[in-house]
Amino acid sequence: MRIAVVGASGRIGREVVDTLKNRGEEIVEVTRSAGIDVQSGNGLAAALTGVDVVVDAVNAATTETTAVTEFFGAVARTVAAAAHAAGVRRIVVVSIIGIDGFTAGHYAGKLVQERAYREGPVPVHIVRAAQFHEFAEMMLEWTTQGDLAEIPRYRAQLVSARTAAEQVAEVTLAGGRDLVEIAGPQQWWLVDAVAQLVARRGGPAQVREVLDITDPDHLLLAEGALLAGPNAIIAGPTFEEWLDDRWPAEG
Questions:
Q1: What is the rounded distance in angstroms from the CA atom of residue 158 to the CA atom of residue 183?
Q2: What is the full DSSP assignment across 121-133?
Q3: Model confidence over 7-26: pLDDT tens digits?
């Protein structure tokens, strides 16, 4: 099977590419560095020649609501049109669990992406994953000032990026349900996961939880909107196992 992966150089895109290559599939890596712009469509028609399935794992460089929704919407419409012209059989979109009620930022952008693909001419399968284990690192980087990291009140069900990529690969190769969810085996207050990360690898002296009322979706985050639904696939490794792999405990 010839598979094009949009966003092949990103965190989840790299894992998807590696997983599919390990299964013997032919991969077309659709990236800016390869001269392909999926927002404008420049270079996309040639990249999709002979492709059976497209995986969209693209990420945005911004979280500003207007910019990110415009970006994801434009990419979805451009990729869907090019895929249809190339005779692609289906598109697999990597998305996020529980985003239906969100109105701002990255999650709102992913909703626009999903809707644009569903309205397009090519059959679409959406794989919604929980936040990846690396999200704890990202949150720490975003929120640390001096010796203090202020983590928003946020419930999450962190999952391995590799595990999510393996599920994307399954859907890519076999099709199946239009919507699949995958999450890790543990529910977290994000501040607790970040505190465990800091204890293991080092970091700011204080990790504190805050309720960010400037975020219009802060109650959704705090009340567990991003936790797995009843039909989600639950799979490890756990967050602690991921920590052990990255920063083995002493002794």
A1: 6
A2: SS-EEEEEEPPBT
A3: 999 999 999 999 999 999 99
Tokens 């995986």 appear where? Answer: 55
Distance of CA 136 to the CA centre of its chain: 14
How many Å apart are CA 88 and CA 50, to the nearest integer?
8
| Torsion angle defined by CA atoms of residues 128, 155, 228 and 197, in that order, rounded to the nearest 10 degrees | 70
Question: For the CA atoms of 87, 173, 114, 44, what is the dihedral angle to 10 degrees?
Answer: -40
Give tens-digit pLDDT for 228-248. 999 999 999 999 999 999 998
- 3-class SS at 251? coil
For 37-73, write each residue's pLDDT tens digit: 999 999 999 999 999 999 999 999 999 999 999 999 9
Report residue 69 as tokens.
């929704």
3-state helix, strand, coil split of the chain in percent (to 5) is: 40, 20, 40
CA 200/CA 243 separation, integer angstroms? 7
Chain-wide mean pLDDT for the chain? Answer: 96
